[in-house]
Amino acid sequence: MKFWAIVILLLTLVGMPLFAVMGGISILSWLGSDLPDQRFVRFIAANVLEDRFSNTPILATIPLFTFVGYLMAESKTPDRIVRAASAVLGWMPGGLAIVCTVASAFFATLTGGSGVTIVAIGGLLYPALRRQGYSEKFTLGLVTTAGAMGLLFFPSPLVMIYAFIAGVDVTRAYKATLPPGLLLMLLLCGYAFYEGKRSGIPRAKFDLKEAGSAVWHVKWELATPLLVGLGLATGLMELDESAGAAVIYTLIVEVFVYKDLTLRKVVKVAKDAMMLSGAIILILAMATAMTNYIIQAGMPQAILEFFMERGMNAAWQFILVLNFFVFVLAMVMEPFGALLVAIPLLIPLAATFHINPFHLAVMFLLNLEIAYVTPPMGLNLFIASFRFSRPIVDVYRVVLPFVALLALGLGLVIVVPSMSSFTIAGDVAKARAQAAKDGSAPREAWLLECVQEDTNNLKPCSKEDIAKWGPDGQGLAAKEAEKPKPTGDVIPAMDTGADAGADASVDEMDALLKEMLGGGADAGAPDAEAPKAADPMDDLLKEMLEAGKDGG
Predict the structure, then answer these.
(1) How far apart are CA 509 and CA 502, in angstroms?
(2) Is the CB of residue 140 less than 8 Å from the CB of residue 383?
């Protein structure tokens, strides 16, 4: 088994697909199990074929939203977004740089990747920023990092995948990631404002007519997230249904309204989008299979014990280890792979320390983005180097101020966990109120308050709830079960003497006792209608005494 593990590791290093790596690890793990009855390949399908995976709407949502992003990327949508943002924000100090930040975040949200944002939005705005007077250092650093916060906004596919693995509602996940995303955008826009003022960049005069015309020209694209958001907010559409509506709407807009794409081009775009989506879903399936073995083998507990033996016994210590682990992992893996590999390992550990699931999501996604723009292995650095024909060492230097700002945002999120959860405080209060009304444990609230290792067995998070319901959430239920329950009129039944045998409803234990003591109709009672007989135990004692006298 060790030999095959080494083979898989070597194949991974030479570029074997991630789904094959995960699938191979899962198969070898089950076949090498210590328990003979678990040495079967069929165990890798245990979680993949169950309803939690096969019936999840995310399997349809991921390819649909990916298709929407590809359609917009291949059309002239980036041009229209840049024009509208420039017309509305160009008059501010650092206006065009702020436009780059906002447009990049919006585009990264739609496409699910900051790498493609560098090519699409960065390629458009890089020459414009240079012509307006921004330095080479600032411009290159900005276009390389500006899309970083976009993966926290709706409808980022990374948030969907996290919500699926963590077992939380995806709509609430988007509500929770919005404030931290806006914080990062504010930090980068503030830096752009400062650079515009410091460098004396000329500002464009605000033209109301041009602003109105530019926004009107991009109105159809701006309506896409609005359509999806309204469908979800009103309850008229579920997540997968809203994604389908977005695809139909975007196809109509790009092919028949703007006429940027031909039907032949749409077929090619669909092919490219489905290749990416299929790879993501296949990786997700193999990651789910691997998670099944990881939990069965108790690996998270072993990892936890390893760190606890070395002094990790507090939540803040776990958070530091978590951030370092995710950052290093994201350095060597692409985003979806890092998410699918790390989250199954981190969920049980985070559950032990009662980490908020939305706080965990924001920390994880921010670490991914920071890793992709951090020297020396950040993926986006190589994309920017290739796209703008700059030596990679030059890119290393120019991104450092932006990395510092992103790290500052991550630090604020870590120090103030409520920043990631205050938007769902109303949902938690509503769940608790409903549980109090029903007289049951607030399990729905626990799912929103702390990471759950098993969403089918929800456990409390706070000290108050643990004291009330027990660490497993079954405290009061167990106490109720221990209370004695009435089993019928036992005492009168024992006093019925010979008549007890005629009563079909008499307790079985009473009947057994009567049989042992010689009671009932078959005990030799002279008449069923006779008066109440003496206690059989008294008769037995009398017989024993008489026998003793005769023997003397």
Answers:
(1) 15
(2) no
Which residues lie closer than 8 Å to 206 by C-beta, 6 or more apart?
Answer: 90, 91
Q: Please tell me whether residues 38 and 92 are part of one structural domain.
A: no
| pLDDT for residue 55 | 62
pLDDT of 384 = 82
pLDDT for position 21: 73
Kindly write down the DSSP assignment for every residue of 17-40, as one continuous string.
-HHHHHHHHHHHHHHT-SSGGG--
- In DSSP notation, 73-84 reads HHTTHHHHHHHH
14 and 149 fall within a common domain: no
Q: 386: Cβ–Cβ under 8 A, 6 or more apart, which residues? A: none
Are residues 48 and 62 located together in one domain of the fold? no
Both structure tokens of 486: 């009435």
* Ranges in the chain, pLDDT < 70: 1-5, 7-9, 11-19, 38, 40-58, 110-116, 120, 239, 280, 283-284, 287-288, 291-292, 294-301, 303-304, 332-337, 475-552
Parent domain of 538: 490-551
Q: How many domains does the chain have?
A: 4
327 inside domain: no
21 and 118 together in one domain = no
Q: What's the N-to-C CA distance of the chain in angstroms?
A: 84
Please tell me the pTM assigned to this model. Answer: 0.63
Do 174 and 265 share a domain, yes or no?
yes
By C-alpha distance, which of 142, 145, 128 is closest to 192?
142
